[in-house]
């Protein structure tokens, strides 16, 4: 069955979106989804534990789930974090190192409101509260197609800056827009990351390259049945999955 790595972005109160619906999750649905994980017997684990299980260093918990949040939105801190803490769930937030405390300007290109991003002090508070902080690149650019040198710089600079802010190593990266190629995977490994997550759908298994782990995007329109369907059924790879 493998490991379900769920991909979220914003959590809050939003009108119904016609495009990029995986960027939004209304707080009411998020609250129900988190409760459903417990009621359905899923084990929510952190990324470090997931790596240990994928490498066979410890058993994979039954119905294991990792909760990931891209971009580092302020509404994660305001809306998602209290719900996660109420359940005792670990999570990981992928932050854009050069954009801390600013707004997600990339949303405007698609006609969406540029939402506020968490500041450096917010990230330090998250880390102190047990939330893992990973890298989402230095500038939220598409890595695929850039030169090896440019990709390495984007990934290494982000890791170094976030580590300096947090006072601890940053081990995990999420590729902006899911755009990656083999050059990206090598650059991420050379930059010192342990894992990289993509936007390719499927359940993660030991067969996957740790630098190209698949995720399941949670969309604004997902009903509770649809949410369960993604957890329990949508495990086959979709897209050009990279395995060992």
Explain what this protein looks like in three dimensions.
The protein has one domain (4-232): TIM Barrel (Alpha-Beta Barrel). The longest helix is centred in the middle third of the chain and has 19 residues, at 148-166. The two termini are 18 Å apart. Helix content is 34%, strand content 15%. By secondary structure, the protein is α/β, with parallel strands linked by helices. The chain contains 7 helices and 10 strands.
List the helices and strands and how they pair.
Layout: E1 4-8, E2 10-12, E3 24-26, H1 27-39, E4 43-44, H2 47-54, E5 64-71, H3 74-87, E6 92-95, H4 120-128, E7 132-135, H5 148-166, E8 172-174, H6 182-191, E9 195-197, E10 216-217, H7 224-232
Parallel strand pairs: 1-5, 1-10, 2-3, 4-5, 5-6, 6-7, 8-9
* Mean of residue pLDDT values: 94
- Please name the CATH topology: TIM Barrel
Question: Which class do the helix and strand fractions yield?
Answer: alpha/beta
Overall number of domains: 1
Q: Which descriptor suits the 3D outline?
A: globular
**Could you state the CATH homologous superfamily?**
Glycoside hydrolase/deacetylase
Q: Would you state the CATH class?
A: Alpha Beta
Number of E-state strands: 10
* Number of helices, where a helix is a run of at least 4 consecutive DSSP H or I residues: 7
Helical proportion, percent range: 25-40%
Strand percent estimate: 15-25%
The low-pLDDT segments are none
Supply the CATH architecture: Alpha-Beta Barrel
- Give me the strand/helix succession: EEEHEHEHEHEHEHEEH
The radius of gyration computed from the alpha-carbon positions, rounded to a whole number of angstroms, is 17 Å
| Major β-sheet profile | 6 strands, parallel
Report, as a whole number of angstroms, the end-to-end distance. 18 Å
């Amino acid at each position: 069955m493998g490991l379900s790595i769920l991909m979220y972005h914003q959590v809050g109160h939003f009108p119904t979106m016609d495009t990029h619906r995986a960027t939004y999750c209304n707080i009411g649905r998020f609250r129900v989804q988190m409760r459903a994980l417990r009621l359905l017997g899923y084990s929510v684990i952190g990324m470090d534990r997931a790596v240990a299980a994928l490498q066979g260093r410890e058993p994979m918990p039954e119905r294991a789930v990792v909760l990931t949040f891209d971009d580092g939105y302020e509404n994660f801190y305001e809306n998602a974090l209290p719900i996660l803490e109420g359940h005792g769930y670990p999570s990981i937030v992928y932050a854009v190192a050069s954009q801390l405390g600013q707004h997600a300007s990339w949303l405007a290109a698609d006609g969406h409101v540029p939402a506020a991003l968490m500041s450096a002090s917010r990230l330090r508070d998250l880390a102190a509260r047990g939330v893992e902080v990973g890298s989402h690149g230095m500038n939220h650019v598409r890595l695929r197609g850039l030169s090896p040198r440019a990709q390495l710089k984007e990934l290494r600079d982000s890791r170094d800056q976030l580590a300096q802010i947090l006072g601890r190593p940053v081990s995990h990266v999420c590729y902006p827009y899911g755009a990656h190629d083999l050059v990206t995977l090598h650059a991420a490994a050379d930059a010192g990351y342990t894992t990289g997550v993509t936007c390719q759908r499927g359940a993660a298994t030991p067969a996957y390259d740790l630098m190209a782990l698949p995720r399941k995007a949670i969309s604004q329109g997902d009903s509770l049945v649809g949410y369960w369907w993604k957890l329990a059924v949508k495990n086959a790879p979709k897209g050009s999955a990279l395995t060992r």
